[in-house]
Design goal:
The protein is of the alpha+beta class and 388 residues long. Helices cover 63% and strands 16% of the residues. The chain contains 13 helices and five strands. It has helices at residues 2-34, 36-42, 46-82, 85-91, 96-99, 101-144, 254-258, 262-268, 270-303, 309-336, 341-344, 346-364, 373-387; strands at residues 157-164, 170-178, 185-198, 203-217, 220-234. It has a five-stranded antiparallel β-sheet with strand order 1-2-3-4-5. Strand 2 and strand 3 (185-198) form a beta hairpin. The protein starts with a helix and ends with a helix.
C-alpha cells in the first residue's frame, strides 16, 4: 500500500507540474500582449522583462493552482481507469478508500502551497513589480528630460532645465509653461528642482524650490513667489500604456488587508471596503479550492471508464470553468449587489465539497448516479456500431 500510494502521489505531482508550466506559458503570453505598450514604451531589456513576468507569476499561480491540482488527480485516475488498473487493484482487494490516501495527501500539499502563494507571494510579487517598474521609469524620465532642450512630450506642459542629473533627478535653472487650465497660463521659473516618482499613486512628481510663478489671465500678469511648488503628471503621459494607478487591495499583503477597519472605510468609500472584503475572502477561497477540486476529481475520473485523455482533459476544464464561473458570480454579487459573501462566494465551494464526498462514497461502493448511465449507453452503442 505504501508503494501504491507513492506511485499515485508521484504521478499526480508529475502531471501537476506539467499542467502548471503549460497553463502559465499561455497565461503569460496573453499578459505579454496586454503589456506590450508598456514594455515597448520603457524599452525593457530581456532581463528586466523576465523579472517583470516573475513578479506577475504569483497572482496567476493563485488561480492556476486549483485547476492544475484537479487536472493532476483527474488525469492520473483517468489513466488508471482506462488502463484497467483500477479494476485490477479492486480485484486484488484494494478499495478506493485505500487508494484515496494519495490524492488526499496531494490535495493537502497543493492547498498548503496555495496558502503560501496567497498570503506571502502575491504581495511580494505585486510590490516588486510596481517598485521595479517605477525604478526603471524614474531612470527613463531622467534620461528623457535632457538638459538644455525644451521638452513638449508631456501634455499641456513645456519643460526646460539647463542641468539634469540622471542619477538622482536633481534639476537646475528650470522653466515650466503650464497650459493645463483653460483660463490661466502659468510660467514657472525656479533655480532648483527635483524629479521623483510617487510609488503609491504612480505619478511623476516635479518639486520646484525658491521660484517664481507668472500667471497670465485676461491680459494681466501676476507674479507670485514660492518656497516649494509641486507639479504632478501621470507616467502614462510619458510612457504609453504605463498606468499603474494607486495600490489596489489585490496587491496588498494579508497584514495590510486585515489592518483595515472596514466599517470606517465604508463610511468614506463603500466600493473600496467591498473590494477589500472580497479580496480577503479570495485569499482563503483559492487554497481551499485546491482541496475541494482534487477530491472532486477522483469520483469523476473513476466514473468515466474508457474515456480518452483528450476528452477527459476537456471535461476537467469544463468542470473547473463551471466552478470558477460560480465563484466569480458570487464575488460580483457580493461586491456590486451587497450580497453576503459568506453565502454568495462560499456556497459553490460547499456545494462542490459535498458532491465530492458523496461521489467518493458512491465510487467506493461501485454505485454511480443515474445520469451517468447515458454515457455508458452512448459508449456501448458506439462500440456496437464500430463492430457492425
Amino acid at each position: 500500500m505504501r508503494l501504491l500510494t507513492q506511485r499515485i502521489f508521484l504521478e499526480c505531482l508529475k502531471v501537476f507540474f506539467i499542467s502548471i508550466v503549460v497553463l502559465m506559458i499561455f497565461v503569460l503570453m496573453g499578459r505579454a500582449l496586454q503589456l506590450k505598450d508598456t514594455l515597448m514604451g520603457l524599452e525593457l531589456n530581456f532581463y528586466d522583462t523576465l523579472l517583470m513576468f516573475l513578479y506577475l507569476s504569483p497572482s496567476f499561480l493563485l488561480i492556476m493552482m486549483p485547476v492544475s491540482a484537479m487536472l493532476a488527480v483527474f488525469l492520473t485516475f483517468l489513466r488508471m481507469s482506462s488502463d484497467k488498473e483500477l479494476i485490477a487493484l479492486k480485484a486484488g482487494g484494494i478499495s478506493l478508500y485505500q487508494m484515496f490516501k494519495a490524492p488526499l495527501a496531494f490535495g493537502f500539499l497543493s492547498t498548503a502551497l496555495t496558502f503560501w502563494i496567497s498570503f506571502s507571494l502575491i504581495s511580494w510579487g505585486a510590490n516588486n513589480f510596481r517598485s521595479h517598474l517605477l525604478d526603471i521609469a524614474q531612470n527613463r524620465v531622467n534620461i528623457a528630460l535632457q538638459p538644455g532642450i525644451f521638452n513638449q512630450e508631456i501634455p499641456n506642459l513645456v519643460f526646460f532645465a539647463k542641468k539634469v542629473d540622471v542619477q538622482n533627478g536633481s534639476l537646475a535653472e528650470v522653466l515650466v509653461e503650464d497650459t493645463s487650465r483653460k483660463d490661466v497660463a502659468l510660467t514657472i521659473l525656479a533655480p532648483y528642482g527635483n524629479l521623483s516618482i510617487d510609488s503609491l499613486k504612480s505619478d511623476i512628481v516635479m518639486l520646484l524650490q525658491d521660484g517664481t510663478i507668472y500667471s497670465e489671465k485676461d491680459n494681466k500678469i501676476t507674479k507670485l513667489q514660492f518656497k516649494e511648488y509641486v507639479i504632478r503628471f501621470a507616467l502614462s503621459s510619458l510612457f504609453k500604456g504605463l498606468d499603474l494607478g494607486a495600490i489596489q487591495p489585490k496587491e496588498m499583503s494579508w497584514k495590510d488587508l486585515s489592518a483595515f477597519d472596514l466599517d470606517k472605510v465604508a463610511e468614506q468609500r463603500i466600493d473600496l471596503a467591498q473590494k477589500i472584503n472580497i479580496e480577503m475572502h479570495k485569499r482563503w477561497l483559492f487554497p481551499f479550492s485546491c482541496l475541494v477540486l482534487t477530491i472532486f476529481a477522483v469520483p469523476i475520473a473513476t466514473s468515466f471508464q474508457g474515456m480518452h485523455r483528450q476528452s477527459g482533459l476537456v471535461l476537467a476544464l469544463i468542470i473547473f470553468f463551471t466552478y470558477y464561473i460560480l465563484i466569480s458570480l458570487g464575488m460580483n454579487l457580493a461586491e456590486y449587489s451587497g450580497f453576503n459573501p459568506y453565502i454568495s462566494i462560499w456556497l459553490p465551494v460547499v456545494f462542490f465539497f459535498c458532491i465530492s464526498i458523496y461521489g467518493v462514497f458512491l465510487s467506493a461502493n461501485e454505485r454511480f448516479p443515474s445520469w451517468l448511465n447515458f454515457y455508458s449507453i452512448f459508449k456501448f452503442r458506439k462500440k456496437f456500431v464500430k463492430k457492425a
